[in-house]
Amino acid sequence: MTTATSELREAGTVRAVDYLAGELAKVGVTHMFGVGGANIEDLYDAVHRGGAVRGIVAKHEFSAVTMADGYARVTRRLGVVAATSGGGAMNLVPGLAEAHASRVPVLALVGQPPTGQEGHGAFQDSSGKAGSFDAREVFAPVSRFCARVDDASSLTELLPLAVAAAQAEPRGPAVLLLPKDVQQARIQVPAHDTAPTPGGPATASAARLDTAALGAVSDALHGAGRVLVIAGEGVAADDARGELAELAQCLGAWVAVTPDAKDVFDNRDPRFAGVAGVMGHANVEDCLRRADLCLLVGTRLPLLARGGLDRALAATDVVCLGPEPPFVAGIALGGNLRDALRAVTVRLPPHPRPCPPHAGPLPAPVPGPLFRDRERTVPHDQAVAAVEAALPQDAHVFVDAGNTGASAIHLLPAPRHGRFVVALGMGGMGYTFGAGIGAALATGRRTYVLAGDGAFFMHGMEVHTAVEYDAPVTFVIFNNNAHAMCALREQFLQGGVRSDDLFAPTDIAAGVAAAFPSLGATGADDAAQLRTALLRGNAAGGPAFVAVACDPREIPPFLPFQSFTEATKSKEGSDERGVVHVG
After folding, report:
1. Cis amide bond preceding 543, omega within 30
2. Which residues pair with 450 in a beta bridge?
3. How many C-beta neighbours within 10 Å does residue 266 have?
4. Degrees (nearest 5) of the Cα angle 14, 20, 21?
5. How many CA atoms lie within 13 A of 256 on its CB side?
6. Buried (b) or exposed (e) across 272-297, using 16+ Cβ within 10 A?
7. Other CB atoms closer than 10 Å to residue 93's CB: what's the count?
8. Are 501 and 454 in contact (CB under 8 A)?
9. What are phi and psi of 456, to 5 degrees?
């Protein structure tokens, strides 16, 4: 604790916010992301005085949450976001919903008006008194724990509970509502440490594995000939990549990954079958049809991960390892994922099985655009290839929603030593701008943000945050001047494209370059220019920005669109797999 903070102690007491800042540092938090305001300024003051946690000011509270989310995903530590009352607090909700759905541990510290003003017309009152709405009822559905700290002394009890709830299975957000006078109040510092240790709750211990379920899973795997593993984001969250690889080797299994988990298994390994689901590879379905058993590891196999596979799954025995039950029928072994993987592996024969031959993750034969615009554009596959050629193998990659996301998930191999993150919990556009910054500041490693122009126009001004903090983030904007996935849905589902989702051309690179002269933003007219710009960004220490022109009519490697075009070509309502609907 710094001298400035020590001076705030009086007779064994300390401001509640100083206690809070100190406890965050104790659990390993290094950054707090947020947007300031009158009812959260005392916490920012405490963070500044304490010095152990760095306060980062974002442009919007949604992006502040995604910064904490990205921070948590790459560090496996608690992400922290702070916001003031009123609109600032409400802007947190969609980001917390993503963290809730994707099981990301985030602690939200939300300022509130002073308690004495509640119910008396306070500005931004959300106490639930005198006709105001209750913030607890807003945040409770998108959190694992939500409490209002009405008495400053209760913070020493509520903070450890919130941190533990965020990091326990199922992980997710915890919310503490902090009235301004409570933040400023002095409290007695506990004589003993109440905060959980870094990396998890103090009381956390691996749950005992169910003996009967373990036996059933082991017997099923031992008796299976060909096995397809489908691994999910839970493998990354539990740092179980090594255990997954060892089990796959023992089984001689093919390994596929869910769209949000490309980095959990080496994409260049001969066992790698590809990505499962609607943005994935046909080889996964082929392997599933040939398999005697499908083993789910760290995934419940939601719709985006199983789209196009339902028939094959129905004809195959399914086993699941993970803390939550799967969305498909099968034998499930709950509990800690690493413990489950190890327990199953030691029960298998010690000699690894050979992996049967398979085609591998070949790119889908994507149809050409419905028509090509007159302006020069770069096909997505060429743009993604340029990214692959420039991407450092220790970089993190954050992929946004839409056609850009589908192309990157399908075509871009995950870096060998970095995260490949896709936020599919809520699938909100613009997630990556904050998340990529949070990851880059947390690790100091080059981080790529791949997003479309629609996502950029939502939250792309977080580029300012990257510039202010000199974050090593490379923003790659695939600009097709459209909400192209919406336009294609209109084409296939609603009888033709409306003009609503097609935009007038915008030179995003020129605009960003003018706004941020130190950034050196540039446009790329072809794949070679894109690769050159990316390599130049890699060599720089701070942020980089490249925009590449794409065609809004290009059909991405997205199974629902492919199945529609196949059905149209065959003049039938469906092909063998049927038309796949998402949304």
Report:
1. no
2. 399, 476
3. 15
4. 100
5. 36
6. bbbbbbbbbbbbbbbbbeebebbbbb
7. 16
8. no
9. -60, -45
Burial letters 146-157, b for 16+ CB under 10 A, else e: bbbbeebeebbe
Q: Which residues pair with 408 in a beta bridge?
A: none
Distance CA 419, CA 66 (A): 15
Report how far Cα 168 is from the mean position of its chain's Cα atoms. Answer: 18
Pure H helices in 391-526: 403-411, 431-443, 453-459, 463-468, 484-493, 508-515
In order, the DSSP letters of 180-193 are HHHHHSEEEPPSS-
Whether 67 shows a pLDDT value over 60: the answer reads yes
Reported as a pLDDT band with limits 50, 70 and 90, residue 256 is: very high
Minimal CA–CA distance to 545: which of 575, 571, 574, 515?
515
DSSP state of 134: B
CA 307/CA 181 separation, integer angstroms: 51
Q: Are 533 and 519 in contact (CB under 8 A)?
A: no
Predicted local distance difference test score (pLDDT) of residue 204: 40
**Token pair for 364:** 């889908």
pLDDT band at 568, cuts 50/70/90? low
What is the rounded average pLDDT of the residues 385-411? 95
Instruction: Identify whether the C-beta of residue 457 lies closer than 8 Å to the C-beta of residue 465.
Output: no
Half-sphere CA count of 568, side-chain side, radius 13 A: 11
Q: What are phi and psi of 19, to 5 degrees?
A: -60, -45
Burial status of residue 583 (CB atoms within 10 A of its CB: 0-12, 13-18, 19 or more)? exposed
Paired residues of 186 in beta bridges: 15
The Cα 264–Cα 207 span in angstroms is: 23
Write down the mean pLDDT value for the chain. Answer: 91
469 CB contacts (<8 Å, ≥6 apart)? Answer: 56, 437, 441
Tens of pLDDT, residues 295-333: 999 999 999 999 999 999 999 999 999 999 999 999 999
Q: List Cβ neighbours of 20 (8 Å cut-off, separation of 6 or more).
A: 43, 46, 109, 155, 159
The DSSP-derived string for 520-533 is --EEESSHHHHHHH
Q: How many CB atoms lie within 10 A of CB 122?
A: 23
Instruction: Retrieve residue 96's tokens.
Output: 């917390």
**Residue 471, Cβ density class (10 Å: 0-12 exposed, 13-18 middle, ≥19 buried):** buried
> pLDDT tens across 2-60, in order?
444 454 555 589 999 999 999 999 999 999 999 999 999 999 999 999 999 999 999 99
CB 423 within 8 A of CB 21: no
**Per-residue pLDDT, 382:** 96
Would you state the pLDDT for residue 569? 59
What's the pTM value of the predicted model, to 2 decimals? 0.93
